[in-house]
Amino acid sequence: MQTRLVEKYQSRPEGREAEAILRTCVHCGFCTATCPTYQTLHDERDGPRGRIYLIRQLLEGGEVTERTRTHLDRCLSCRSCETTCPSGVKYGRLLDIGRGLLDEALPRLPQTRLLHWGLRQVLPWPRRFTPLLRLGQAVRPLLPASLRQKLPPRQPASPWPRQRQARVMLALAGCVQAGAAPNTNAAAARVLDRLGITLVEAPGAGCCGAVSYHLGAHAEGLDFMRRNIDAWWPALEAGAETLVMTASGCGAMVKEYGQLLRDDPAYADKARRVSELCRDVSEVLLAEDLSRLPLQPLTGRTAVHCPCTLQHALKLNGVLEQVLERVGVELAHTTEKHLCCGSAGTYSLLQPRLSRTLQARKLRALSVDAPVRIVTANIGCQLHLGSQADVPVMHWIELLDAACRQQPSTTGQPS
After folding, report:
1. Bridge partners of 404?
2. Cβ burial 95-116 (10 Å sphere, 16+ → b, else e)
3. What is the CATH number of domain 7-107?
4. How many percent of the chain have pLDDT more than 70?
């Protein structure tokens, strides 16, 4: 795609990066066939190719309006288009740049800015989010049905292994997952402990930065990334071998630290190293001898939901299924595996109508073989699907942990 950027964007690094991405697009339209919003709305501007034209129009100095923003905001950032694209267009990165530059050229309405600010002040901060979640859970029967559905039941934190193994890996506590599903990292720690690996959460590490960055607050998102690197670095220098991600959305973000901080002289090398060491927990287990796990058979078929961040961003489509099949889990048949469930970070809050449509479609696709449970690999998908599913929805590592016959002695999280 030929472009003629105006000077104010040609002189900026993100403008030149966007131009390089635009030039890789050959207008083929293969992306529209796998785009959830295009498949739902049937509008070229609500597909990747149309949004690429809108971003090019912005960079070339053309007119941009609130309609431009509407079409960009409707994108889920699922990156299914990247999996389909024969030219390797880095659409997700282009969208982040385009949204950020559009917010500069055409500031959002005050009420929208306030909503985005509120989300950024709550969701990435566990000490703010978790108390508010607990309050909502306490008064759940009194809330309107629409709010009750969004609130997950309270999940008690379960114990971490007591012993310290020779091998050590780091886990990210995260933000929403730490309050809404504290058992996820604990279950991962127990499974890894049975394989001779100690999992620890580094004090000071928090939100991966995705909430702020994808809401256009790029500088704020980069600050979250730097804080995490500072928190992880002593443990990495002491020999921790891997950064284990139990939320694929966080993993997709951490994998981009090296790219996003490449021009920061104080953090470029560390960020690149952190991205290199980042692994989804499914990758970690696939490389281990799973016959060491004392597993007991599970009854009923399990439907696997592979989050967009796992299959399209991290390019790990099928890895989760391989792990579960290796340990004897009977997998249910599912359809439309490439389509997003509609969670997509804050999307379910900011685009509720489209999100609900995609949620219903995904639940139908996951339920065609009458599974007794649904497993996923990302906290947002877990909460979103679980709010409407007829069967339990859990993180797959919890299922694996529950299938282990022998329970090691446990206590609080190791330091």
Report:
1. 295
2. bbbbbbbbbeeeebeeeeeebb
3. 1.10.1060.10
4. 97
pLDDT in tens, 352-381: 999 999 999 999 999 999 999 999 999 999
Q: Which residues of the chain have pLDDT under 70?
A: 405-415
- Tokens 């007794």 belong to residue: 372
Instruction: Confirm whether 7-107 and 295-403 share one CATH topology.
Output: no
What are the boundaries of each domain within the chain?
Answer: 7-107, 295-403
pLDDT of 287 reads 95
The amino acid at residue 281 is V
Per the CB < 8 A criterion, the answer to whether 168 and 284 are in contact is no
Using an 8 Å Cβ cutoff, are 208 and 174 in contact? yes
The pair phi, psi for residue 377, each rounded to 5°, is: -130, 15
Contact 170, 240 (CB under 8 A): yes
Model pLDDT, residue 26: 92
Asked if 185 contacts 244 with a C-beta cutoff of 8 angstroms, the reply is no
Pairing of strands 197-201, 410-411: unpaired
CA distance 372 to 369: 9
CATH architecture of residue range(s) 295-403: 3-Layer(aba) Sandwich (3.40)
pLDDT at 405: 62
How far, in Å, are 129, 297, 360, 373, 375 from residue 300 at the CA level? 35, 10, 23, 8, 13
CB atoms inside a 10 Å sphere around CB 250: 27
CA distances from 255 to 79, 166, 261, 272, 369 (A): 15, 26, 11, 9, 34
